[in-house]
Amino acid sequence: MAGWFLEAFEARTPADPGIVDFIKQAAPDVMLLSPMNMRYGEDVDYAKAAKAMGLPFAISTLSWDNLSTKGVFAIKPDRLFVWNQYQRADGLEIQKVPAERVVTAGSPFFDKWFDKTGGLQSREDFCARVGLDPARKILLYLGSSKNIAKDEAWVVAKILKQLRASSDPVVSGCQILVRPHPANADVYANTKAKGLVVYPKDGALPETLEQFADMRNSFHHADVAVNINTSGMIDAVLADLPTFAVRIGKYDYTQSDSKHFKYLEGGDAIYIRGEKEIGDGIGEALNGHDPKAEHRRAFAQMFARPQGLDRSAGDVIAEAVLTMAAAYRAR
Question: What's the predicted TM-score (pTM) here?
Fold first, then answer.
């Protein structure tokens, strides 16, 4: 009902004259918008102007949950570029975009994990920078946000205790690199132990090239990733890192209710262990037992690169946009 009302409202209100004038002066052959369904965004006005002028426009989906947890498209695009089969369903069922306009292109946002050029330090240099021993295994613990787990420092301490109790020197000598969620980093203020490093201390999102390079090095040099529930699990799987989710009773609902957790669990791309068994599972992975390796690669293609692991989603979208532009010029 709300979607119908918004469409009717936008259809009855004129496009902004200033935006129309700007588009006329720029004289584009096509318009690409993103995300088109966030509060206070001007992209709706650009879409309305494009429709009024007969200019084709497309939407590139911004994030993994953008079509399902944000607003609806008041103006339907000529093309909607989605990441995968899940987003295609959201585009059809939630956003009501006609099927022939929805293109499953892959995720430009995650193209970065498939670019093997630059940004990586040697293991020795990375470990020296963060305070780890390059000769020992590294467990990367991915911190959750406050709404998932208010204080998970005790989980890290419990995992460390299980590792140290192992009779296998590979496992007992494993180090833990904690990467906190930036909105929940203070819970690790008193987390101190030999072979455990919290880095970055205040957490960080990969919003700049430097921050992503830092994150990428952490994933690249880790031997296994562990978490309760964070979308960073997707990054870990795309980085082809054996990834564990710890099942803990009081946090169980935050896992079962999370779309990204369901995607990973449904794709059999992560290991799920209870808090008492997590140490044994980690030990097996540290010693090379990794039966989900193929599942991770299959998930990576299905979720982020449905046109092929060697096919950039950015390239797929660029080619489609150029085709739209050529068709417009040929009219």
Answer: 0.91
